[in-house]
UniProtKB/TrEMBL annotation:
Domain DUF6852: 53-118
Protein name per UniProt: DUF5606 domain-containing protein
Gene3D superfamilies: 1.10.10.1650, 2.30.30.730
Domain DUF5606: 3-50
Coiled coil: none
Organism: Mucilaginibacter galii
Cited InterPro entries: BVU_3817-like_C_sf (IPR049281), BVU_3817_N_sf (IPR049282), DUF5606 (IPR041218), DUF6852 (IPR049280)
């Protein structure tokens, strides 16, 4: 999944796509059907890129992209309005090593809401852009 350029803005519901950058911040567009535009000033607003978000884990933090990938492969994903027990059981499946004391029901609800918003979008099924190999390093193939 290619979540590059998709951000969450503190205090604003939903997810946003970064369209452009200016001196003081970003121009964002909502991912919902309304396509609302928003100018975010970096000195006053907090933004988090989805491909950089992690979830508290017992040993190491778990990348959100890994959890969303497991959610995509899951047979049934509960609605964000499901009760806390159902969400916790689901998260035990898709993120078995998450820290149950630090990952609150509100966090799980937010991730489920994001998943249901993203799953219908073409970018969710795209492969993430990988960094090109440095010049001079060619792939080695075995010749028999």
């Amino acid at each position: 999944m290619n979540l590059q350029g998709i951000v969450s803005v503190a205090g604003k519901p939903g997810l946003w796509r970064a369209l452009a950058q200016n001196k003081t911040g970003f121009v964002l567009e909502s991912l919902d059907g309304k396509k609302t535009k928003l100018v975010v000033n970096l000195s006053t607003a907090k933004m988090a890129a989805l491909d950089e978000i992690t979830i508290f884990g017992n040993e190491d933090d778990i990348k959100l992209t890994d959890v969303l990938g497991r959610m995509k492969a899951a047979e049934s994903v509960p609605d964000a309005k499901a009760d806390g027990k159902a969400m916790r059981e689901f998260f035990r499946e898709v993120a078995p090593d998450h820290d149950e004391e630090k990952v609150y029901a509100s966090d799980m609800k937010k991730i489920l809401t994001w998943f249901h918003l993203l799953k219908e979008m073409p970018i969710f099924n795209e492969e993430a852009a990988t960094a090109p190999a440095p010049e001079g390093e060619a792939e080695v193939t075995a010749a028999e």
